[in-house]
Amino acid sequence: MPDPAPEPDQQRVWQYRDSQPTVEDVLAALPKYRFPGVMRGRRDAFLVVLLGTLGMPRTEARRLRPAAITLGATITINGRAIPTSADPVRCAACAVTRWLRIVGPTWIGLRGDVRQLLDPTTSTLNTHDCERPVPGDWRRAEQQLLPLEVHGWARTGVALSGRSMTAIVPRRRAAAAADQPPEVIGPVARPRSRFDALTLQETYDELGDTDAAVDAALARLQAISDDVRALGDVLDDVAAQHRPSRDRVTCGRRYRAQSQASPRSRRTPDSHG
Ligand SMILES: [Zn+2]
Questions:
Q1: Residue 120's pLDDT is what?
Q2: How far is ligand 1, taken at its centre, from the CA of residue 48, in Å?
Q3: Does the pLDDT of residue 260 top 60, yes or no?
Q4: How far is the CA of 231 from the centre of ligand 1 (A)?
Q5: Can you give the residue ranges of every domain in the chain?
């Protein structure tokens, strides 16, 4: 008898082939601050480190608990050191700390905090995230690997399925193989506007003007809406006058029948009969 097929969960999802993008290539291509997709990008980067750098089986990745991770001069997961790279966007250790920064607030449900942490206008990709201290609330997330719902927000209390992990890896490798423009973050991530050089007082004045302009626009919209409603009423009336009503048809028939019975009383029948 041939050997039974290996248990799918025991398979290594990340298979090394020369032609395929490396872990570092995939990490470089994943969004770190860019909306939309930043939550998914950071979660997938963490997953890629677990499956690709550490070669974890999916069951082990799914069960990863905070106690398995230590932060310090070297980051370890299950006792194994996570390597760093010269380039922060390709750094596996940075991928881990970027995810740990948001997994705690995400687990607790502090979406505002997470959004603030992901603000692309106040961030940089030139320095190593792994060299900055990470607040300890990541330890409160009982699961370190979280599935995401359709809008990209994390779901807690459910494990990321093995099937999802198997689907994510080739998709992220394919994205890394395709040429993508580099992620733009920092103050330049916000398009320049005419308000950039204003003083605080000028900004308040502009705010007041904008408020008045919005009020005027809303009043104009209300007037247009009233006109449309009045026009609709008139059209309804006209349509009702020209609609052949059943009464009028009945009247017309009765009239024609009467006219045929007594030619003397013949009159021009109602044109709409
Ligand atoms: Zn780093």
A1: 87
A2: 15
A3: no
A4: 65
A5: 8-189, 200-265
Measured in angstroms, how far is the CA atom of residue 172 from the centroid of ligand 1?
20
With 50 as the cut, is the pLDDT of residue 268 above it?
no
Phi and psi torsions of 204, nearest 5°: -60, -45
212 CA from centroid of ligand 1 (Å): 49
CA of 82 to the centre of ligand 1 (A): 10
Q: What is the pLDDT of residues 161-174, one digit of tens each?
A: 999 999 999 999 99
pLDDT in tens, 96-117: 999 999 999 998 888 889 988 9
Ligand 1 midpoint to CA 89 (Å): 8
Q: Which residues of 61-83 are buried (b: 16+ CB within 10 A; e: fewer)?
A: bbebebeebebeeebebeeeebe
At 267, the pLDDT band (50, 70, 90 cuts) reads very low
Mean pLDDT of 33-58: 92
Tokens matching residue 9:
């969960």
